[in-house]
């Protein structure tokens, strides 16, 4: 499964993408997420990404973000089922490698992943929950057309309290 915008191409997560996950585990990329994960936790995450991407039910997918022009893998994005505020929704999250940030890549990838979630047609809404302190990720949500519903509290990773913004995209509205 591949989708493309003018800037990026999303390619379904594969077994060979573990090195990309390791590269995205840098301190500057995980500062708002509790810091880098151990090798064991990364391996668990990789297995979850593979399982989600192999599931044909529409429950979600994980993708590597590839520059359309060069074919270079520069990030990770996906969507998955979640339960929020009494409703079943899709949730999304992403990371772009530090050397490629600030170029519109995350916004292009978020628009592309919203198209995949829309095609899945299981849930009306796609949510994102970036830290209130993560200006760039909140900017991605705004540029991608998400509506800011307000701040919320949750644990991420489990055991670490976090304040995030609850952004929501209505998948039933025209793209």
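^ Assign residues to that structure.
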């Amino acid at each position: 499964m591949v989708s493309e915008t003018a800037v990026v191409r999303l390619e379904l997560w594969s077994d060979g993408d573990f090195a990309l996950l390791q590269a995205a585990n840098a301190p500057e990329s995980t500062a708002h997420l509790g810091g880098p994960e151990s090798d064991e936790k990364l391996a668990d995450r990789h297995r979850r990404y593979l399982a989600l991407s192999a599931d044909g039910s529409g429950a979600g997918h994980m993708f590597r973000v590839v520059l359309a022009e060069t074919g270079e893998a520069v990030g990770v994005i996906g969507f998955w089922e979640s339960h929020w505020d009494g409703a079943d929704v899709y949730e999304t999250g992403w990371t772009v490698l530090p050397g490629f940030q600030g170029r519109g890549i995350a916004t292009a990838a978020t628009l592309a992943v919203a198209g995949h979630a829309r095609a899945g047609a299981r849930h009306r809404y796609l949510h994102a929950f970036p830290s209130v302190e993560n200006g760039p990720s909140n900017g991605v949500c705004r540029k991608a057309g998400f509506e800011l519903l307000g701040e919320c509290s949750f644990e991420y990773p489990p055991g670490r309290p976090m304040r995030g913004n609850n952004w929501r995209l209505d998948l039933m509205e025209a793209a």
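The chain has a mean pLDDT of 89.
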